[in-house]
Each structure stands twice: as C-alpha cells, then as structure tokens.
Write a structure and sequence with these properties.
Elements lengths: L1 E3 L8 H7 L20 E4 L3 E6 L15 H12 L9 E2 L8 E7 L4 H10 L4 E8 L7 E11 L4 E5 L7 E12 L4 E7 L6 H8 L23 E9 L6 E5 L6 H6 L1
C-alpha cells in the first residue's frame, strides 16, 4: 500500500518558488487556497489530492467566489506551463466550512472510474471532529434516518424512518480528551447530506463552531471543527492501494489534537 502523509511531493526549485509558500501545509485556517499556497498532498498524471482549507468551496455556487476546482486548474497550468484549458473533473465534495482531503481527476479516463469508486462506497473515509460535549460512549455505531430540508440547507436526524428520509450510518471513536473539548474519529459508512454534523448533533455532540447544528458560538473564521482526515482507495489506473492523510488546519485546538 502506498501511503501519502502530510507533505506534498517535492517539486523542482523553480516551480516551488513560483507556486508554493515556504511551508504549504502549516498555514492559518483563515487563508483561502490560491495557486501559490495550494496544499497538494498527492499528484500524478491521473489525479490530484488537495488538503482543502475551511472557506474553500469545491465547486462554484451562488456566492460567486472562486471555487477550489478553478484554483487547482490554475495551479496545474502554472506548474506545467500549459497554454490552453486544463481538464479537471470534480469527483466528490466537502462542505465549505469543513477542511481536509478532496480529490480531482486530471484525465477523462480517471474521472468516471473515480466517480464509480465513490458511488460504490469503495473509498474508505475517516474524519476528525472536535465536539464540546463528551459522547455517551467511547465508541459507538450510530444509525439514523436523515431528512434533508433544502430551504434551510440542513438535514434532520430521526431514530426511525420517516417520509423522504435516507438511512445514515457512521461509527465514532473518542481518541483524545482536550482541556475543554473531545476529539472524535469518524468512520463514515454512508454519504448523506451533512451526515456527520446531523448525527453528532443528535447525540448531543455538536461540532465546535457549527451554529447550524446547535453550537453555542461560531468560529472566528467561519469554519467548523470537522476535518476529512484520511482517504483510502484503489488507484483508478495504477490499481495500487493509496492512503492519503491530511493534517488539520494550523489552529490552536486542532494543534492540540496532534
């Protein structure tokens, strides 16, 4: 298994000077990704994996803010001195206030294979979440039925199936006790809208900064303390098993989790 940890691949000096800061991983969470500070944790001819900052949007939305997909295209264009348009396929998304691993396809060959991999739940995802309240158990499998309210852009968790709801399953483990918070690792077994946020809130463990799901205060930068920590999958072309690990943002509480 090929394991990619916290540092991006080493580039030649001239490209480093053009595209990266002195330390592309150790950055403040308030910073928005640009072609010069992009946190690349894996790249080959077929795909590129980014450590998304809180505040980055993966695809364009009604805000009109530049999406991460366009930032990655510009990064590739600069790095490889491409004169024309750059191909990039979006394979999955993270909520805007969430940080962590996002993979893009660099070729039309890789895109449908990556899409199938995510659709068939063949990519194993784990997340870190910082919560204010201690969970009822140190480890537990949670099953809820989630119903999405598109007007509110929010999902509601029910213990039993209700009309238009979808089954949601995750397993959490308490992995660290902080001074005032608790760090959970989440094994996501289904992929529902706001699933982790809604299910943790349903057991009284709202994620730090997540006002939408009951946090008592927001984070100053608008983030929530939810981070896509690892992603394990079979490479769509090379057929190697790859495990990506993304460090959380450089922020006091996240730093205490390491």
């Amino acid at each position: 298994m090929l394991k990619i940890n916290q540092k991006p691949k080493t580039l030649n000096k001239s490209v480093n000077e053009q595209l990266t800061t002195n330390n592309p991983i150790d950055v403040d969470s308030k910073i928005i990704s640009t072609p010069k500070n992009l946190q690349v944790i894996y790249e080959d001819n077929h795909l590129i994996a980014i450590n998304k900052r809180p505040g980055d949007i993966v695809q364009g939305d009604k805000t009109g803010d530049a999406p991460l997909s366009e930032v990655v295209k510009e990064y590739i264009k600069l790095k490889y001195n491409k004169p024309g348009n750059v191909y990039l396929g979006v394979t999955h998304r993270l909520d805007r206030p969430t940080s962590g691993i996002v993979i893009f396809a660099k070729t039309s060959k890789a895109l449908p294979r990556l899409n199938k991999l995510f659709a068939d739940k063949e990519a194993k995802k784990t997340y870190w979440a910082v919560v204010k309240n201690q969970p009822p158990k140190e480890k537990e499998l949670l099953t809820h039925w989630l119903k999405r309210n598109t007007t509110q852009n929010k999902s509601y968790a029910y213990k039993i199936e209700v009309s238009e709801s979808k089954k949601a399953i995750l397993e959490y483990s308490l992995i660290k006790k902080l001074d005032n918070y608790f760090l959970l690792e989440i094994d996501l077994q289904t992929g529902r809208h706001h699933q982790i946020r809604a299910q943790l809130a349903a057991i009284g463990c709202t994620i730090k900064g997540d006002l939408k799901y009951g946090a008592d205060r927001s984070n100053k930068d608008g983030s929530i303390h939810l981070h896509a920590r690892t992603l394990t999958f079979t490479h769509p072309v090379k057929k190697e098993t790859i495990k990506l690990v993304a460090p959380p943002p450089n922020e006091a509480i996240w730093n205490a989790c390491n």
